[in-house]
Amino acid sequence: MEKEIVSTDLAPQAIGTYSQAVKVNGSVYLSGQIPLVPETMEVVEGGIEAQIRRVFDNLQAVARAAGGELQDLVKLNIFLTDMSHFPVVNSVMAEYFVQPYPARAAIGVAELPKGVSVEMDGVMVL
Fold first, then answer.
1. Class of residue 22 by CB neighbours under 10 A (exposed 0-12, middle 13-18, buried 19+)
2. Mean pLDDT, to the nearest integer, of 1-22?
């Protein structure tokens, strides 16, 4: 098994001991992305919709750095501190994905890094 570490300046740099993504045998494991602006490493301004868009943009940048696109995701995990934001996730997600959609989980959590409202990670197959 040969691991390839995926990294791009177009997504936020890791704020801990992890890689943005790891590619193994045609599968890519994307680390959780929060709504940080890559250039400033600050949380995007605006409400929950802006945060969700920024997370998808960050995931897209990492997916492309790995040689794929968001449409190549087979599993998407969504972590929300307020599950009432789930309809907004669905609305924004429809702008980034077309059918067939990836398998998905939405998990309510008490808290996320930097006090953000949303984090997402996923698995992509190339």
1. middle
2. 95
pLDDT tens column, 71-122:
999 999 999 999 999 999 999 999 999 999 999 999 999 999 999 999 999 9
Give all domains of the chain, ordered by start, each with its CATH number.
3-125 (3.30.1330.40)
Rounded Cα distance, 78 and 101, in Å: 14
Distance CA 21, CA 10 (A): 13
The single-letter DSSP state of residue 8 is -
Helix (H) or strand (E) holding 27: strand 27-33
DSSP-based three-state secondary structure for 4:
strand
